[in-house]
Amino acid sequence: MAGTVALALLGGLAVSEPAVADDKPVNILAEDPVTVFGADVLGCEDDVDSKPGAADRLLNGTLHLSPFGPVSVRKDGNFNWALDPFDHPSWASRYRSLRWVEPLIDESLNPERSAAERSRFREHAQKIIQDWVKDNPPNAKQKVRFLWDDPTAVALRSAFLLCAKRSLGGSAWLHKTIDDHATFLRKHWSGAWNHGTMEALALYRIGCLESNREALRIGRSRLVGSFESRNNRFGPALDNQGVTNEQAVGYAEFTYQLWHEVMRTFRTCGDSVPKVMRTRVAKAEAFVTAAIQPDGNLVQLGDTFARPVEIEPGTTIEYAATLGAKGPRPTKLVSVFKRGYVFGRSGWGTTRPFTQESFYSLRFGPDLQVHGHLDHTSMTYFARGLPMLVDSGHNGYKAGAQRSFLRSPAAHNVLEVAGVQARDVATALTRKVVRTRWQSYTMTDRAFGFSRTRNVLFTQGPDIAVVHDSTGAADRSRTFRQLWHLAPTMDVRRARNGVAKATPRNGTDARLWLIPVRLGSGGKTQVVKGRTRPRQGWVSEQVLQARKAPVVEMTSKGRSARMLTVIVPAAKSAKVRTSVKNLGKGAKLLTVRIDGKAYTFRVASSGALTRV
Prior knowledge:
This protein is of the alpha+beta class. It is 27% helix and 26% strand. The protein has 14 helices and 29 strands. The strands form 8 sheets. An 8-stranded antiparallel β-sheet has the order 11-12-13-14-25-18-17-16, with no helix packed on it. A 5-stranded antiparallel β-sheet has the order 5-6-7-8-9, with no helix packed on it. It is elongated and about 85 Å long. The termini are far apart. The model is unreliable at 1-36 (pLDDT under 50).
């Protein structure tokens, strides 16, 4: 058919889509779709939150969802679906999604198990699912969270139920349950972000596998529509640079994988992938790559855990994740994304070892949404094989003091105003100068009710960062604080003139110098670690974690602030000194000496920084 491709789907469903030369759909015509579809397209996935041997333990009455501890459950399949032993939304949502039953399905199909063992796993899985169905009809009066109130939980459960058909077949009760989930998902959608993507994908899969025309149509419409600006409250799921709308690096990686899953499902269902989807998902590779530190971990920005990146073979992500061992080498050293990110590095392991490259990040952009933090103007810095300046991180979604702290400005490397509540505002990147061995940026906002401007310059040869913070006039004299968050593995001591020196405890030949350059009346430097009131000096790298970590606070008092700080990662034996002289008309010349060698920078009256 010229100009269009007739897309044959299960049960005689058909959709027409303009033909795309480089995206040829696969026609699926089969009496038993479960034998045709791969586990990934069915919605099956390894339950990475379950410990090895999960299926055998379930038979013996133990459920263990990592990182939470083991829980005793009924062996007869009669479960308490209101159970929440850890009072934690992540455990409760996973429990009621039924994804933890998937190991039973897997083992029921495992050819290395005996027929009797496979039968026991299958029967136990069926008992659990049927108990859930009996206890939780869609119109149940009992209101338990993550049963029929949350479309994402319904979507995850839908994906599992489709996956369970591999073992349980197409029995009428299972078909009815899946149809109930489709009905709910048709009526409820979270919108164009990862929750909405998972919901629409689940609905699309139901349409494809259950011959449900309406579910197929609505699921596809929502997925394709997620790339539009109109009618999406958070903007398109991925913008034209491939950047997620969720303001978290961890979710950039997750949605990159999720949209690839969407495209595979489209193709396997005989559908075609729109060009805008293919193009933007492809561009997301560059964002994820740029956000990988020289240790192979994602930089912790927004709701992001500290962990290695999942290797994506044949991509630049693979190169960064394997520390340059495999994959095509990226070429860009500095990347600026209009949704509010700057990533820069000294190299990709060609002129010095990969892990010895320096790396930095900056945050600006739209006001807070989805998984973002109040981290505008914040920076992170990696050098000499270590995270030097860090984001305080992410510990999961349970509300409480640590969650509130981690999302606040106090948990980031910013200038804050004591006693003034920060506003959730957009921050503009108003200036950028990118040179081969140095880069300079200016960011400005009104987070505290008056102008706040941060100028920052990074050099790579040697690695130096210079930060100039300034504000407009406050209503009265205030205390302004520059916050510098260090890794929990660093020890800090204060030296003369407010200088702070941080040294890693693991024996690495490194020392981070934090040097305040006084531009006016003197301030003071103090180190805070593990304080609870007000909360300060904590880092969370994983769920449920809060580690004491040093924070260097440099303060200045007055109606406004003008603070200049030099940050130098150097060898332990290095001697670092700074000096400044006036150039006239408010401009200054800053000199940084490392072991006697001088590096000079011009500080304009506006605070803009250039290397001389």
